[in-house]
């Protein structure tokens, strides 16, 4: 064969090699192929996962830990940085936790700690297998048991991160806990747990700046999203929530030295069959705090018990100083374009503190109908909301009951 005739096939081979190489992520480290993980649903993924993480984290070029399709058992894992270069986890499989709550000595299952430039994606599922824990956790006073229940996924001190196309299922406690993070985005993140699963908040955060929650679907037994002290510049949009307890700021004001919650935007969300819609809750008496610059806009509520709620007499299981006033100051809060139905007549309820009344609360374009025969009502205590647009129910049209009933 003449030499020049060979050039075409070898170029073809090179092209094929190039195409197949470009399909694999840069620096892909496969836990099965390289570290002997077994997708048999019973061999512990812990060591292969950690070994792959350590190799990826030590790499000076970007690298990706790959967990291929299949079902894995994971006892627990603590994935720590700092890493030498951007690091990614591509989870395609389903990772299951031990179902026995007694298998956990501390409240962690999968924990990411001190990492910068992090991404996790791949369509995978973290399954907390919570059903046994739910049964034992139904007693609200069983605190000793609850404090050891693991959160499915924790992000502690994580900066510049994107979590995309991941599902958290049946966590034993909160699904996701974001703590001390900066610039972290959860996008197309799915939460799935039964409506009656206790304390299974979808995404909880605290002491974090620049959290973005976008395009997520959250069905769970507690708050879809709960916002703790020290949250700044939070953006929540395009969320569907329900069943669950809605999107909540708080509870705040129970513990000393809480940091302000400042700059929260919640837009374009649909909330269905939940106990609350847009809520801010603070404890009476107890400790001071600040909530300001909070805006709920373009929200649809379907069959929500309390669609719009500021509750500064938050008092679960009557365990509070109900006759004292909350020391948490609320200001610059708006509810705009909120429509749909409420399952209770009290659709818009502002119970503000007598010692620091809510400042600059705005209601605009509200149209909420009660699903029952009575019209929807609105109650106000220690607040004079600014109003505009069409408003149903008429703001502050109903008296506030003398004894404020406890809410959970
Ligand atoms: C925030 O994090 C993303 C990664 O999710 C990154 O692309 C972006 O540059 C970061 N923004 C800032 C201001 O650092
Ligand atoms: C609102 O959110 C839904 C998802 O719930 C999304 O499909 C839609 O595109 C969003 N609309 C706008 C205007 O962003
Ligand atoms: C809301 O509850 C009704 C009645 O139980 C049910 O038919 C509907 O599917 C629920 N919607 C969602 C989004 O969960
Ligand atoms: C409203 O939601 C409750 C649960 O909060 C559910 O039991 C009821 O069936 C729902 N009703 C409708 C009409 O969807
Ligand atoms: C509330 O907004 C006003 C301007 O609209 C601003 O002057 C004030 O500082 C804000 N209050 C807080 C506590 O952020």
Automatic annotation (TrEMBL):
Matches recorded under PANTHER family: PTHR31375
One Pfam family this sequence matches: Glyco_hydro_28
EC number(s) on file: 3.2.1.15
Keywords, in A-Z order: Cell wall, Cell wall biogenesis/degradation, Glycosidase, Hydrolase, Secreted, Signal
Signal peptide range in chain numbering: 1-26
Coiled-coil region(s): none
Alphabetical list of PROSITE patterns matching this protein: POLYGALACTURONASE
Active site: 245
Stated family: Belongs to the glycosyl hydrolase 28 family.
Biological role stated in the UniProt entry: May function in the depolymerization of the pectin in its walls during pollen tube elongation, or in that of the pistil during pollination.
Substrates-to-products reaction catalysed: (1,4-alpha-D-galacturonosyl)n+m + H2O = (1,4-alpha-D-galacturonosyl)n + (1,4-alpha-D-galacturonosyl)m
Enzyme class: hydrolase
Transmembrane annotation, as ranges: none
GO terms (BP aspect): carbohydrate metabolic process; cell wall organization
Compartment annotation: Secreted, Cell wall
Molecular function GO terms recorded: polygalacturonase activity
Record-given protein name: Polygalacturonase
């Amino acid at each position: 064969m003449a030499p020049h005739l060979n050039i075409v096939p070898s170029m073809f081979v090179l092209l094929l090699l190039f195409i197949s190489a470009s399909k694999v992520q840069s620096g892909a480290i496969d836990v099965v192929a390289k570290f002997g993980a077994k997708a048999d649903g019973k061999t512990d993924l812990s060591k292969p996962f950690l070994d792959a993480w350590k190799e990826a984290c030590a790499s000076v070029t970007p690298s990706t830990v790959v967990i291929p399709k299949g079902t894995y058992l994971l006892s627990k894992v603590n994935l720590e940085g700092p890493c030498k270069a951007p690091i990614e986890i591509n989870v395609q499989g389903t990772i299951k936790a031990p179902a026995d709550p007694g298998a956990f000595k501390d409240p962690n299952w999968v924990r990411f700690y001190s990492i910068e430039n992090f991404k996790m994606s791949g369509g995978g599922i973290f399954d907390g297998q919570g059903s046994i824990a739910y049964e034992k956790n139904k007693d609200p006073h069983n605190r000793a048991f609850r404090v050891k229940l693991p959160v499915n996924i924790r992000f502690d001190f994580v900066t510049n991160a994107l979590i995309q196309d991941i599902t958290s299922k049946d966590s034993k406690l909160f699904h996701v806990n974001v703590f001390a993070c900066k610039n972290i985005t959860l996008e197309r993140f799915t939460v799935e747990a039964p409506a009656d699963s206790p304390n299974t908040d979808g995404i909880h955060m605290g002491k974090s700046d620049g959290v973005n929650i976008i395009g997520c679907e959250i069905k769970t037994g507690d708050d879809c999203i709960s916002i703790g002290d020290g949250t700044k510049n939070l953006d929540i949009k395009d969320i569907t929530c329900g069943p669950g307890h809605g999107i909540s700021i708080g509870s705040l004001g129970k513990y000393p030295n809480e940091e302000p919650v400042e700059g929260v935007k919640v837009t374009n969300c649909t909330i269905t069959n939940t106990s609350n819609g847009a809520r801010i809750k603070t404890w009476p008496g107890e400790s001071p705090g600040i909530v300001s610059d909070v805006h709920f806009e373009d929200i649809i509520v379907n069959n929500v018990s309390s669609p719009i709620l500021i509750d500064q007499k938050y008092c679960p299981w009557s365990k509070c100083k109900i006759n004292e006033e909350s020391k948490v100051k609320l200001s610059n809060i708006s509810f705009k374009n909120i429509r749909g139905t409420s399952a209770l007549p009290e659709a818009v309820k502002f119970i503000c503190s007598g010692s620091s009344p809510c400042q600059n609360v705005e209601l605009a374009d509200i149209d909420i109908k009660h699903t029952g025969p009575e019209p929807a009502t609105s109650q106000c205590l220690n607040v004079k909301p600014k109003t505009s647009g069409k408003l149903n129910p008429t703001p502050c049209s109903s008296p506030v009951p003398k004894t404020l009933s406890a809410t959970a």
